[in-house]
Structure formats: structure tokens, C-alpha cells
Amino acid sequence: MMSLIDIDGGDASKYRLIGDRVLSYRFAVPHDAELYLGDVLKITDSVKGLTFFAKVSDLLHGCNFSDPKWDTRPHTEHFYGIGEDVFILVEAIPLGFVGEDGVFRKPRTIPAKFSRVEQPQAEDFAFLRQVMGEIEVGVMKTGQGVLKDVRVALHATVMRQHMGVFATTGMGKSNFMKVFCASCMQARKFGLLIVDPHGEYVAGGRSSSGTATQGLLHYQAGRDGLAVFTTRSDSFRKKYLLDQLYLDYDDFRAPDLLLLYEHSQPQREVVEMLESTPGSAVIDFFQNTDFATFDADTYTGRHPAIARDLKNFSPSTLSVMQRRIKGMLNRNRGFLRERGSSIPDIIKALHENKVVLIDIPGMSEQSELFVLSIITRMIMRNHQGEDARGAEEQKQVLITIEEAQRVLGSGLGSTRTFREAAMEGRKFGVGLCVVTQQPKNIDARVLAQLNTFVVMGLSDRGDRDIIASSAKQDLSRLDTEIQTLEPGEAVISTLGIPFPVSTRIHLFEEYIQDLNGRPGSRPIEEGLDTSF
Ligand SMILES: Nc1ncnc2c1ncn2[C@@H]1O[C@H](COP(=O)(O)OP(=O)(O)OP(=O)(O)O)[C@@H](O)[C@H]1O
């Protein structure tokens, strides 16, 4: 019979590894030991001289008695007592191991039988720290607490390989995105584009639970890493030294209309026909043509080529398109004008590795997608052009798409621009940050392209299953943990970190206070007062 009496005696650990295989460990601990799901433990294999790390994935009651009903018989306690034959069996998932060279590696071997299992000490955290990248988002979580010394940071170089952020509403997605932005402003490793129709990223607002939040401008020490293009009033812009957002007619292409309206087959064909015609020509043609009398053969206006292309379409189809273009101009008149666009400045700021915030508070969902679609297309064209010209250094840009199921769903090709970015972007240094509450409504081919998964509490089993099957690391055994995540907690699976890491995301306000707290940093108001 197995004995749990420790051969080392005294205060030595009674935790000893008894099994099981390369990808799953099992060990027994005393029946009254306090361990929690998600606890990170250290396993010292003194035979091979290796130190393993593992995370508790399950806890079960165990005993050495052959009588299966021992614990339900009357007076059980009286007969047996709760001694060392009654214990807790712990199952754990390996994270990796460190050899004598001090390098952290994926778990490809098994610790020796009866290796000592214990809580890691401060000096052990160096091993976990060495696998982290530059874009800090939180600290490593363990069971009930956190490992304050192990900051979780994503690797900047893998961002072009697309990231997904998955969270049910209220789980802390907005907070995560702001923390991510602040770290990008600090690290300046790639350009990050984010379009905000709610006006909450610039100077804060209210969280989903009603508490006041701060914005990216409050991270005063990182201000050089932020460029804001906004549709807000002159006074707001001047106060915070922001740029005004403009798009011009030539930024527009007919397929952008597909995001704004449902299209019939003939209308779709009109859009496709005009796909590569400059937006200014398309707008001018539709603004100045009377489709009640339009005849391509006798057309004498400024755009004979367009007239020829549209020769075979019915006047009613063309009239509908005319109304839509008028509606599009009306809807977006806050930033869309005939000539003069912010796009070159936006791309320049992205290539200076800044966070570029497009702040369009109060705009409709259609306007948000319209702006995002145009900027995404312009970035893709710019990067494809640079690639063709054989530019020496490839710039990296990450484009955020919030509520991504709207444009990356499995439906019709209404979102070609985004699909193209998802499928081919990485070749040109363009990554997508796909944010959604409903991963199961995202096209599976797009999910398969994502290499970083930030999972923040998904209540729907279908959503969790789809994430587990799409992630490059095995998340299926973390299902219980994902189900029980609290707001602000995440399981992150990413390239460069050899295991899925449970993370307590920083609270944005505390994080920027920490970042701002360096000598020389000033509060936001002070910075503004001295600007004028
Ligand atoms: N890392 C964190 N630490 C502590 N509290 C957090 C953290 N993240 C979020 N919270 C709290 O959880 C609440 C919801 O956060 P947040 O507004 O970011 O959620 P959300 O997922 O963006 O919600 P919605 O989808 O409705 O916008 C807020 O009150 C916030 O303060």
C-alpha cells in the first residue's frame, strides 16, 4: 500500500508526483491541503536535474481502501480516522520545464516518479518571465491569486499573425483593449488602428457597470505614441491637440456601399462594375445624371466610360444606386469631403508605430464600418505597393475590428476588404485584431488564421468549443477555467509563450497611473495647461 509519509520528514513538502504522462501529471496531497484549480506548481526532478511547472486542472478525493463504500458506512470516521490513506488526487497540466541551461522549454518529457511538487518561490518566476514579450497586458493568475512578479506580455512580432479577443459583454473587453493600446503606445513596436464610435477611448467615459473610466489621453507619459483623428468640435480638438478626421471622395470605392445597404443581385453587379473606378468620378456621375432619361449611347457628361459600363442596367437599379450614394454622402458628411484626406497622415502615424485612434462619437454603425473599410483598404494597398516596390523594411500594422462578426461572418462577400486582410494581410505586415462576443459567428477560415487568442469569459458552450478547436494550443482542458473567469480575467494562447497563460488583466486606470508614475510625467490637465 502506498504511504504518504514523507521520507524527508519535518517541514518538507508532502506533495510527490505519482504519474501520469507527458501531457498530464497526477499527484497526491494530504486530504486537508488547500489547493485551487489554476494554481501553478513547481516539480523538481532531481534525477534529471530539471524543473517543471504545471497548472492544477482538477482535484479529486482519493483513498487507499479497497472497499468502495468505505466512506458511506456508518461510523467511518470511528473505524478509520482521516489519516494518510485518505488524500486529494491532483491532476495538473504541464506548462514546460527548465534545464540546467536555464532555458524554458515545452513539456516534451516527464518528471521522475516521486519528484517533489511545491509552490514556486520568487526566484522561480524568472523562468516564466523569460517567455514573455513586450506588450504587457496583465499579471499571471494562479488559482485564487496572482503571481505579481510574472507580468504577462504578448510578443509584438506575432501580431501580424492576427489576434482574437473573445468576451461576453461586461467581461472587461474595453478595459483590455485600452490596456493593450497603452502598452502599444509605450512599446512602439507596430502601428495599431482602432475606430471608436462610442468616444470612450479618447478621454474615457462610463464602463458597462457604470463606473467612470479614463481614456488614452490620460496616459500622458505615452502621448507621443498616440495620434487621434476625430470628428469632434474645434474646441475639443484644440484643447487636446487632436487632428481632424477627413476622408475624401477618392478614398471611397463603390464596394464600400455593400457595408451600408442590402443589395439585390443587379445592384451588386453595378458595384462590382465600378469597383476600381475612382470614388470622385463615381460620385460625380451619380450626382449629375438623370436616370429617367439616361441613355449610354447619347450620354455627353464628364464620365463616358462609366456610362458605357452601366449601359445594360435598368434605370430603376441605377436610381436606387443614386439614392444610396446620396445617402452615403449625407450620413458621412461630418468627415467626408470632395478633396483633402487624412489617410496619408493616418498611414504615416501607423508607420511611426503609433496607436491611431479614429474617434467618431455618435456616428452610426454604418459610418464606423465605412471608415474602417476605407482605411483598411488603403493600408492594404499601401503595404502591397511597398511590397511590390521591394521596400527594405516592412512596416507592421494591426487593425482592430470590434464586433467583428458584422464583417467577418460566414455570409456573402460583402466584406471583401476585411477578408482579404485576414487571408493575405500577414504577407504584407497587416494583422487584424478581431474582437467579438460571438466567435461561432465568425467565418471558420478567418478563425483559423488567428494565432493569438485572448479568451475572457464566454458563457456559450458553442462559442467555447469553436475557440478550443481553433486555438493553436490545446484549450479544451481549460474549459472549466474559461467558464469560471471573472471580469478582467483571461486565458491567453499566443505564439512565443509555450503554454496558455491565465492572466489577470491590469485595470487600465491603475496601469496608466503606474506608467505615468515615472519622474517627469505630468497629469493630463497640467500637460494641457502648459500647451497654450
Ligand atoms: N482587469 C480588470 N480588473 C478589474 N476590473 C475590471 C477589469 N476589467 C474590467 N473590469 C471591470 O468590469 C466591468 C466591465 O468592464 P468593461 O466595461 O471593460 O467590459 P466590456 O466587456 O467592455 O463591456 P461591454 O461589452 O458592455 O462594453 C467594469 O466595471 C470594469 O471596471
UniProtKB/TrEMBL annotation:
Domain Helicase HerA central: 145-379
Keywords: ATP-binding, Helicase, Hydrolase, Nucleotide-binding
Catalytic activities: Couples ATP hydrolysis with the unwinding of duplex DNA by translocating in the 3'-5' direction; ATP + H2O = ADP + phosphate + H(+)
SUPFAM superfamilies linked to this entry: P-loop containing nucleoside triphosphate hydrolases
Keyword Secreted in record: no
Domain of life the protein comes from: Archaea
GO molecular function, one term: 3'-5' DNA helicase activity
InterPro entries listed in its UniProt record: HerA-like, HerA_central, P-loop_NTPase
Pfam families xrefs: DUF87 (PF01935)
PANTHER family for the chain: HELICASE MJ1565-RELATED
Similarity field: Belongs to the HerA family.
Protein name, entry field: Helicase
